[in-house]
Amino acid sequence: MTPSVVVVDHPLVKHKLTLMRAKETSTASFRALLTEISMLLAYEASRDMKLGTKTVETPLATIEAPTLEGKKVVLIAILRAGLGILDGMLELMPSARVGHVGLYRDPKTLLAVEYYYKVPSDLSDRDVLVCDPMLATGNSAIAAIERIKQSRPGSLKFICLLACPEGIKNFHEAHPDVPIVTAAIDERLNEHGYIVPGLGDAGDRLFGTK
Ligand code: URA
Q1: pTM for the whole structure
Q2: Is 167 in the pocket of ligand 1 (CB under 6 A)?
């Protein structure tokens, strides 16, 4: 299996991401921009959703028209920054179910520690999109996906705003079967586990906590 990374390098996404990176961008703008980009990521992440058909009568003719088939999508946000991706995704997929996984990075080991887990009870047959803006070390994403895989979801994708080569490598060593959808791949990870050039701490910028 070839691990898949889709970079949504649309001009609108690039422009909005540049605005998000700027350190003077306000919390309100950062939040709004993340919602807007998330809609565009949702568009790409849902590209292979299965379609059926249904009979529709237009004013001129009766046709078999495409319609989404299958069970509802499940969005799972990795707390806390993953919350910033939910609103945009839900704009496009309003009946999606939502789950939350709480993980924090141990500042010394940079490893993910789980403190909360609540997802829809039956994930089988569901398309699950796991959301976290920054794929940095990959540790949180790897741990979240490991946990979610125990519920045997129909399909899984990981959606982020920014990734780096180190995070992608770690993630796909652990989960080669899970495609990544991202707005950009930055240069590198620094010694503190931050993406460079990146945009800083996504949670702090989203919630104004610093
Ligand atoms: N988490 C963030 O919020 N930013 C980074 O650069 C890396 C991890």
Answers
A1: 0.94
A2: no
